[in-house]
Amino acid sequence: MVTSWRGGCEACAPYATLFRYPNAIGEAGETFVTRKITRALAHIKLGLQEKLFMRNLDSRRDWGYAKEYVEAIWLMLQQPEPDDYVIATNETHTIRESLEVAFGRLGLDWQKYMEIDPRYYRPAEVELLIGDASKAKRKMGWEPKPKFKDLIELMVDADLASPRGGVGLTYLHKMCHNVIFAG
């Protein structure tokens, strides 16, 4: 659609596919898996929660950092000609790895606090999601900086530093999103 609009209306309309982009103050929803993990971990550490209920731990995802993705979008807008890009890290990690890094940040054994709950399984689970950002690197010089471990640890630290382990951050994120995109 964007390509048609770009060609038919001669509009400057770059397009990006963004692969999984958590940020340090929480994603749009607390059920997004990385946010769910780091928020639950903060609650467990603060004594507000005993268990984290999860689904398939072997799904592989390409997780990048929202702040960097905004930088990539800005770079797209600086290009002489609009184009289509994939913004991703070009690497995948399992949900199990997310648990290991997050709980490891606080010296806790994730297996002691996590239980599998069949209610969270998806009927059409996608086992692998990975993006190829080679075009973004080639044409704009963009590439992801923080590695997966750094991103997860950043999110854990942010949830622990926030009042009551992340409570209220989703509201703040939604407010910021509305201000940025509502104009």
Explain what this protein looks like in three dimensions.
The chain is mainly alpha-helical and 183 residues long. It has a single domain, classed as UDP-galactose 4-epimerase, domain 1 (Alpha-Beta Complex). It contains eight helices and six strands, in the order H-E-H-E-E-H-E-E-H-H-E-H-H-H. It has helices at 2-9, 33-45, 66-78, 95-105, 110-113, 134-140, 148-161, 169-182; strands spanning 15-18, 52-54, 60-61, 84-87, 93-94, 114-116. The chain has a two-stranded parallel sheet. The radius of gyration is 18 Å and the shape is elongated. Residues 167-183 have low confidence and may be disordered.
Search tags:
single chain; mainly alpha
